[in-house]
Amino acid sequence: MIADTKERFPDLHPPFTSQAAVIEANRCLHCYDAPCTIACPTHIDVPRFIKKIATGNLRGSAQTILDANILGLSCSRVCPVDVLCQGACVMHRYNEQPIEIGRLQRYAMENARGSHLPPRPTRVNFRVACIGGGPASLSCAAELRRHGAGVTIFDNRPLPGGLNTYGVAEYKLRPADSLREVDMVRAMGVEFRRAEIGTSVPIANLEREFDFIFIGVGLGAMERLNLPGEHLQGVIDALRFIERYKTQPDFRIDGDVVVIGAGNTAIDTANAAVRLGARDVHIVYRRGEYEMPAFQFEYDHAKVEGVRFHWMAQPVAIVNRNGRATGVRFLRTQLGEPDSKGRRVPEPIPGSEFEIACDLVIPALGQSRLTAMLPLETSGGAITIDRPTGRTSHPKYFAGGDCVNGGREVVDAVADGKRAARAMLASRGN
Predict the structure, then answer these.
(1) CA 376, CA 392: separation in Å to the nearest integer?
(2) The CATH number of domain 5-111 is 1.10.1060.10
(3) pTM for this predicted structure
(4) Where in the chain is the domain with CATH 1.10.1060.10?
(5) Which CATH superfamily is domain 238-363 in?
(6) Which secondary-structure segment (H or E) carries 163?
(7) Assign residue 306 a region: left if phi > 0, alpha if psi is -120 to 50, beta otherwise?
(8) Does residue 5 surpass a pLDDT of 60?
(9) Residues 274-294: pLDDT tens digits?
């Protein structure tokens, strides 16, 4: 039998003990120009929060983190620190291991008691609606509430938190951690309403009721394969797969799994499948190893988990047996000329067909855009904004997160929300 959630999904990086955290904190050189802080999209004062850990001031450390990033806990667990703060650590120059900033941040956030965002001295009197309950909206709402603005977050799911709650692999971030941050924002006085904007709540109603509207809707459903057999039993897209095992404690897998795609979500899905009991897990990608969009450290981790990778292969059909998927047929590919984005286009090789038998097929091809309901200028399906402020083509609307950047990191969404909040405050003279 599969064990409980924590046994199925132990932490990717175990938390520090108190002694280990202090030892690691004392390795920090407290650089005056702090390249780690510059590399963080929310510009957390890294040397400051680490020094407070070294001196035993965990509450002060957590306050330093929260002052820059209200989602400091989730970011400590899901950020690609190897290419952000830790990647910029000066220890690299001396051929030393970088300071484990992510684990130290997690230690402070999980062990401090009573940490919260104190109000700002300046107070405002206007109201803001945030559409979407993910990281961008939570960040925007928290910054606005610090100045006294009234904020209501509208989300169409039973629980707020967006992908932090529903779509991040369990071994990185558990729903309880995401909801703990939601509760912190709620405790600041932010109101949460479950509603489908555009249907149960018309956009026109929001425009009448609120002074500003922040769009933090993220992205839509996973892109479809558009192949024969896509709707068979035994085919489930990556986001629905992750949501299902995170919300169904007894969810398990028997047999073999094929994941189509090689982004970070595909790798999260494959790793989860291994831990849920799959016999063999295959990732198949139509380009090569060096073209995959996933981070290198994610790829390395998947190989340790036992995931098998197949490069230069494109799916052409899901094998149908009595209404159920029993495999995927592929054609081998070769890379042709670059497309408009500079990526070489995979071209199928005639006569190279092969098949991988499986019991579950999980497409992980990226997400579609969700901007059709909005009266805003878009480009390539993303909302067009003024990058420094988050202001859209409509003066009452601001936007941030995946609906703007096409799907980056949680910390980027947090930074977007905070910038938009400050721009709203600045427009009212605060």
Answers:
(1) 7
(2) yes
(3) 0.91
(4) 5-111
(5) FAD/NAD(P)-binding domain (3.50.50.60)
(6) helix 163-166
(7) left
(8) no
(9) 999 999 999 999 999 999 999
